[in-house]
Design a protein that fits this description.
Elements: E1 7-11, E2 14-18, E3 21-24, E4 31-34, E5 40-44, E6 49-54, E7 59-64, E8 77-82, E9 89-94, E10 99-103, E11 112-116, E12 123-128, E13 135-140, E14 144-149, E15 155-160, E16 166-171, E17 178-183, E18 187-192, E19 201-204, E20 210-215, E21 222-227, E22 231-236, E23 243-249, E24 254-259, E25 266-271, E26 278-282, E27 291-293, E28 300-307, E29 310-318, E30 322-327, E31 342-345, E32 351-356, H1 357-361, E33 378-379, E34 396-401, H2 411-419, H3 427-440, H4 444-457, H5 468-473, H6 496-499, H7 502-514, H8 560-563, H9 586-592, H10 599-605, H11 608-611, H12 620-623, H13 633-645, H14 649-659, H15 661-664, H16 669-685, H17 689-698, H18 702-705, E35 753-755, E36 762-764, H19 765-774
Antiparallel strand pairs: 1-2, 3-30, 4-5, 5-6, 6-7, 8-9, 9-10, 10-11, 12-13, 13-14, 14-15, 16-17, 17-18, 18-19, 20-21, 21-22, 22-23, 24-25, 25-26, 26-27, 28-29, 29-30, 31-32, 32-34, 33-34, 35-36
Length: 789
């Protein structure tokens, strides 16, 4: 093992010295405890129960308490504690529900003293009174706590926590009669040993089981708790209600917490699973540990400071079958590897930037932040002069950049979230409604996006083609055309480039006239063509069609036209004479030869039948059967990615919900989940809880759907005896009364409950509303004039 630093500490007349060292155990340890003079440590587990002497260089085994040929389950220990008043007295919590005391002063090999077999299930914790020699407290999986007088054979009092199991019990160091107990349901109870019938105080400390607790060594009102929710919380019990004053977020379930001696704000923790390290936190700086011990290779099961007045020696046992003594000077410091820079936006658009003070102080142009609010300029940790190893001077300078109130306003986001419709209507109505909302907020691009989505994805088969173009000619926006132009739109002075395109009009016209599936739509607004300077032969020609003719192709049978194709005799088609070949429009020529029409009028009239409909008027219904909506899915996907990259995750998520399966397969699951979590976070920042819950319910991601189904705990107290109720039903186990009765129907309310804040009576929401429609007096008969608002 590498050479470690040696530490010597003077404690009154005693001297503690040593180094970081370890020894191998015969089996994994479940708990450890140290004797009063810090010279010995006891290690207990399922298959081990030994006492080791703590020498300067090593641990030396002194005594094995597992004696006999067939050790019973009484030796299988879940917890062990060494009395701090009597160095010969030990107590263990056995996995079979037995509490055992051990007297090391016995001359025989078997040091077992007394057995208490009153618990029905595993005992999780045992604790001696700090000043009373014969008082022992135990907490069991059966939900009961028992106080034993070691001079008697039976317990002197039993405390019922009204919960499934007790995970930890600890006597208060300063209050003689007080002890704390933690429970599986997340509650912490404070009891007076003189009153076993009812707890003095109860509060919910964690979301999930509370595995451990520890009273502060100096401040009588501070209680630290750790739970499965990965948090360590410090509670001030001096107030009438328990007040959370510090909270440390760890990375795994917290199995043990121990306040560090002589350091008021330092606390050591270890985890129940996943994380094998031991951390020492400064609760004033909860985001990064002050020190870390990384020696164990498996889960740490027990930690204890070697002496009540020495902050530099820490003992630990682990499932890797090792016992360690850690020296604080050898601990690693996570602050060495921490990033001193930080960046964060506030809800109002302000930007906070923190960096090393040395970097920012060199900037002569930087002005100090003198704001009216919220943040100091510098965060600096004061160094503890008594600390044996030096901390890095990890001070940071904070700059806050404020945004203009008007330019940074997010009112549009709130209004959009409240007014958007995401479900419950046909797709076309949802798109129209959301487009109208966006238009009303001057978000024209978003409004146009919703309109395009309606055109692409909504079904228009119910709209008659006869009325389609007529409605457009009147200015209606019911069905926009994909591509439409008339001869009136062509400029008069066409040059040579325009003449090259003359044949396109005829080719496109012939396709429309000959395709029986096409729809000819009359345009009543385009009948007069007098005064047009366009040559009459503009429509006639014989060259290939342009790309717009793709809309007229039969996509289901793309090779039909190829079979009828014959190789032309000439490389270039011969252009026929315009005057001598009017066969394309014979019926028009007859009309032009009428004696009632002049020559110039003939040219004009010859255009009238062609111009009576939009020359290329391919409506949605025309190409709907040719191009499926999947054709546009990549474009819609790119549109959503564009909005997300621009920061408008609201539009991306809203379109994703409205389109559903139409677009979901085009975007990977991870990207969708990222959009959903970002939008939900924004909604919750603006306290739009109902809308956030609606988005969670409508989402298609499994990870998002379960957000509102977890981490929700409802604590119900009996309205009669005020005791907490179990989750097994709606009848109180103690007073046998129903929890919440409706004053109208006299049945238990299991859904929405409304009550009068004046007289506290209430019931089902619908029943109370109906009652107050005809009467203003309380339905319970108390005479109070209730009012429903």
């Amino acid at each position: 093992m590498e050479k470690m630093a040696r530490v010597t500490t003077a404690l009154g007349g005693n001297t503690l010295s040593g180094r970081t060292m370890f020894c191998h155990l015969d089996a994994p340890a479940n708990a450890i405890s140290v004797c009063r003079d810090a010279a010995q440590v006891v290690v207990a587990g399922r298959n081990i129960f030994k006492i080791y002497s703590i020498e300067e260089e090593q641990f030396v085994e002194k005594l094995n308490l597992r004696v006999g040929r067939k050790p019973s389950l009484n030796f299988s220990c879940a917890d062990v504690v060494w009395h701090q008043m009597d160095e010969n007295l030990l107590a263990t919590a056995a996995t079979n529900g037995v509490v055992v005391t051990w007297n090391l002063g016995k001359p025989s090999r078997n040091k077992q003293d007394q057995l208490f077999t009153e618990h029905k299930r595993t005992v999780n914790k045992v604790c001696f009174h700090p000043t009373e020699v014969y008082m022992l407290l135990s907490g069991s999986q059966d939900g009961y706590m028992k106080c034993f007088d070691l001079r008697k054979k039976d317990s002197v009092s039993t405390f019922s926590g009204q919960s499934e199991s007790v995970r930890d019990v600890q006597f208060s160091i300063r209050d003689y009669f007080t002890f704390a107990a933690t429970f599986e349901n997340g509650n912490v109870q404070l009891w007076d040993i003189r009153r076993p019938d009812r707890y003095e105080r109860m509060f919910t400390a964690h979301n999930g089981p509370v595995f451990c607790c520890d009273w502060h060594l100096e401040d009588r009102g501070w209680l630290a708790t750790g739970g499965r929710d990965k948090m360590v919380k410090v509670w001030d019990m001096n107030t009438t209600r328990a007040k959370e004053i510090y909270c440390v977020q760890t990375i795994a379930s917290v199995a043990r917490v121990k306040w560090r001696p002589e350091c008021k704000h330092h606390i050591a923790t270890c985890s129940m699973m996943v994380d094998h390290n031991i951390y020492v936190w400064d609760v004033r700086r909860p985001f990064i540990p002050s020190a870390m011990f990384e020696e164990h290779k498996d889960v740490t099961t027990g930690i204890v400071w070697r002496h009540l007045h020495d902050p530099y020696f820490l003992l630990s046992g682990s499932k890797d079958s090792t016992l360690y003594q850690h020296i604080f000077k050898d601990a690693s410091q996570p602050i060495d590897r921490a990033n001193p820079e930080g960046l964060c936006y506030s809800l109002y658009g302000d930007l906070a930037f923190a960096a090393k003070e040395s970097l920012i102080s060199s900037d002569s142009n930087r002005k100090p932040y003198i704001g009216d609010r919220r943040h100091p300029i510098f965060f600096k940790r004061k160094l503890d002069p008594t600390e044996q190893f030096e901390y890095i001077s990890s001070s940071s300078a904070l700059s806050v950049f404020e945004t203009d109130v008007e330019s940074g306003s997010m009112d549009w986001f709130v209004h959009t979230a409240k007014q958007y419709a995401l479900a419950g209507r046909p797709l076309a109505e949802l798109c129209d409604h959301n487009a109208k909302v966006a238009k009303g907020l001057d978000r024209n691009q978003v409004a146009q996006t919703w309109t395009m989505l309606r055109i692409i994805y909504s079904s228009l088969g119910t709209v008659s083609s006869a009325n389609l173009n007529h409605s457009m000619g009147k200015g209606s926006a019911a069905l926009p055309l994909m591509n439409s132009f008339n001869l009136k739109d062509i400029p008069s002075g066409l040059g040579s480039e325009s003449r090259l395109d003359r044949s396109k009009g005829e080719s496109r016209t012939e396709n429309i006239l000959m395709d029986s599936s096409s729809t000819l739509i009359n345009n009543e607004d385009n009948e007069e063509t007098e005064g047009s300077d366009v040559p009459a032969d503009y429509l006639l020609g014989d060259v290939e069609a342009d790309e717009d003719d793709l809309y007229m192709m039969d996509h289901e049978n793309p090779h039909a036209e190829e079979q009828e194709y014959s190789l032309p005799q000439e490389a270039f088609p011969l252009r026929h004479e315009i005057v001598d070949n009017p066969s394309a429009l014979d019926h028009l020529q007859d009309k032009a030869d009428s004696p009632h029409v002049s020559g110039n009028e003939a040219e004009t009239v010859s255009l009238t039948p062609v111009e009576s409909f939009s020359l290329i008027s391919i409506s949605h219904s025309l190409y709907e059967n040719r191009l499926p909506s999947d054709f546009f899915s990549p474009i819609v996907r790119d549109t959503l990615l564009f909005y997300a990259e621009q920061g408008d995750v609201q539009t991306a998520v809203s379109v994703l919900i409205v389109l559903g399966e139409r677009i979901r397969k085009e975007i990977d699951e991870q990207t969708q989940e990222h959009w959903y979590t970002s939008y939900i976070d924004l909604l919750q920042r603006f306290q739009l809880w109902n809308i956030s819950n609606e988005v969670i319910k409508l989402s298609t991601c499994r990870a998002i759907n379960c957000l509102n189904q977890a981490s929700t705990t409802l604590h119900v107290n009996c309205s009669n005896c005020k005791r907490p109720m179990s989750n097994r039903g709606w009848i109180c186990d103690r007073c046998r009364q129903c929890a919440s009765m409706c004053a109208v129907c006299h049945h238990v309310v299991k859904g929405l409950f409304v009550w009068c804040q004046g007289c506290s009576h209430g019931g089902h929401l619908q029943h109370i509303m109906k009652w107050l429609e005809t009467s203003s007096h309380c339905p319970a008969g108390c005479g109070h004039l209730c009012e429903y608002t």
